[in-house]
Write a structure and sequence with these properties.
332 residues; alpha/beta; Rossmann fold; UDP-galactose 4-epimerase, domain 1; 2 domains; 7-stranded parallel β-sheet; two-stranded parallel ribbon; 12 helices; 11 strands; 41% helix; globular
């Protein structure tokens, strides 16, 4: 079986390619960004997933497609990349004779509501990224051959930066770590290695539809952050901030383009958000091996080792500018 991974230079893509290469699976990577990672036996196609000619080239001889490429809230054309290109790829997969197609969506499609969120719950995304991913899901299920959609919780691990890079920098420097509310809410995280395992099982099973995948919930947000602080031997401490004024202030920074945080980050912070993964356990025989706190500690260890090298890569693998939060860091 030959695999195609779109978004092969991204955070999930790199981890998936690394596992496939190690297992001796024939695999091709497609990404508009040339990868700095080299994996023996991986055929690399540099090109835009929105380009039909590129898609035909990348799909030649492919049996399994994992579509992980996406424009993120921080930049990119969400409609053309996440929606139009996903439908175009789904149809191209059918024409090329692909036998299994897995779409990597996101738990943010559920929006805000009572947790745990189940696959049968009506998705109500609250921001453009979530809406684009939900629309792409629908198109994928309608057009791709043998389609399966995975909705992961926020996933982290070695080489993950983005908003977590900001958190890790503050912990390394012993800054105060602010949470919206008192930190007693539960927010699910997923170790990227567990997500990679779910993708492998998804490719091999015959199920269709949607599956949630999320990590073990070890405690509250405050407890998870305190676990990382202790693990890092940092002098940081967790400080709660009243929810309403905090969201208002972050909203103003966002409107002024001075915040690195997305609408989802702002609105979901301080609330419970976790997924019911019992269907994935039943259909795939999958379950998470690591808790959110364990995944955070593992990601922090990589950050501490990487040092200055931790600022390279694609969006989730790059250090984000703190913008307006930089002033808060200096006084924390």
């Amino acid at each position: 079986m030959t695999w195609l991974v779109t978004g092969g230079s991204g955070f999930l893509g790199v981890h998936l390619l690394r596992r496939l290469a190690a297992d001796g699976v024939a695999v091709r990577s497609l990404d508009v960004v040339p990868s700095e990672d080299e994996f023996s036996g991986v055929d690399v196609v540099v090109g835009d997933v929105r380009n039909e000619h590129v898609l035909r080239e990348a799909l030649d001889g492919v049996d399994v497609v994992v579509h992980a490429a996406a424009a993120l809230p921080s930049g990119g054309d969400l409609d053309s990349t996440n929606v139009v290109a996903s439908e175009r790829l789904a149809r191209a997969c059918a024409e090329a004779g692909v036998v299994r197609s897995v779409f990597i969506s996101s738990g943010v499609v559920y929006g805000l509501g009572r947790s745990p969120r189940r696959e049968g719950d009506e998705p109500r995304p609250i921001e453009p990224y979530g809406r684009s991913k939900f629309r792409a899901e629908q198109l994928w299920l309608a057009a791709a051959p043998a389609p399966l959609v995975l909705r992961p919780a926020a996933f982290i691990g070695p080489e993950r930066l983005g908003v977590f890079g900001i958190l890790f920098r503050w912990i390394r420097e012993g800054r105060r770590i602010y949470v919206i509310g008192d930190g007693s809410n539960r927010y699910q995280l997923l170790d990227v290695a567990d997500l990679v395992s779910a993708v492998f099982l998804a490719a091999a099973c015959e199920a269709s539809g949607v599956l949630n995948v999320g990590g073990g919930i070890s405690g509250t947000v405050r407890q998870d952050l305190e676990a990382v602080i202790e693990h890092a031997e940092s002098s940081s401490r967790v400080v709660g901030v009243p929810a309403r004024p905090a969201r208002a202030a972050l909203g103003v920074l966002d409107a002024l383009h001075l915040s690195p945080l997305s609408t989802w980050h702002i609105e979901s912070a301080g609330r419970d958000f976790f997924l019911d993964c019992s269907r994935a356990a039943k259909v795939l025989g999958w379950e998470a091996t690591r808790s959110g706190a364990d995944a955070l500690c593992g990601a922090y260890d990589w950050f501490a080792r990487a040092g200055a090298d931790a600022a390279s890569g694609t969006t989730h693998r790059s250090a984000w500018h703190e913008r307006g939060l930089g002033l808060l860091r200096r006084v924390s």
